[in-house]
Amino acid sequence: MAFTPRSEDLLLVVDLQHDFLPGGQLAVAGGDEIIIPINRLGRRFENVVMTQDWHPPGHISFASSHAGAKPFDIMGLPYGPQVLWPDHCVWETHGAQFSPDIELPHNQLVIRKGHHDVVDSYSGFREADRKTRTGLEGYLKERGIKRLFIAGLATDFCVNWTAVDARAAGFETYVIEDACRAIDTSGSLAQAWADMNAAGVKRIVAGDIA
Ligand code: VGL
Ligand code: ZN
Questions:
Q1: Distance, CA 166 to ligand 2 centroid (Å)?
Q2: How far, in Å, CA of 143 to CA of 129, rounded?
Q3: Which of 53, 71, 121, 170 is deepest in the core (most CB within 10 A)?
Q4: Calpha distance 165→175 (Å, rounded)
Q5: Pocket of ligand 1 from Cβ distances under 6 Å
Q6: What is the CATH number of the domain that holds 34?
Q7: Distance 111 CA to ligand 2 centre (A)
Q8: Is 125 contained in some domain?
């Protein structure tokens, strides 16, 4: 498959932040390996948007916010099951900043997500309560974007939820598999690909973009 990005296409770069990179609080194995490929992909796209995981201190998704809980436990919360994480991407901290190795000077918008105290948001579109919207869908539609190409971290959480919600919003959606890396906890990566397939998300590689 070969794609030549046009003006109604957009590269959506998910959570390329220090805390998800080697040395970070929730480091994703090999996360640093995708930065140069994403820089290269970015040069093919006129339209680029980035998401940024952006949590208040004491966020509900942090294991440290729940007595007796450990990172990677799953806890029932009012909006559904929540994996509990090490503290990560606390707003205004170094861990929440984008890697300085990213070269996407034409990035048009940063969507911050997960900034409400009691709701997480893996998706760039809708928070984990499945109701609260970030505004990204409206932005993309107003801009006339039809196809989304998604890369970043992590395949099985923020990339997955963002891609599934992109389909629900009616975008043709492609996940660039080799420009993503996964956390893979409790079978989450296999489940993520099953969910993305079921939603009609297409799986491609960076070499498919000419
Ligand atoms: C993410 C876990 C917690 C992600 C964000 O970017 O995939 N994962 N917060
Ligand atoms: Zn998070």
A1: 19
A2: 26
A3: 53
A4: 13
A5: 15, 20, 53, 85, 122, 153-154, 157-158
A6: 3.40.50.850
A7: 13
A8: yes
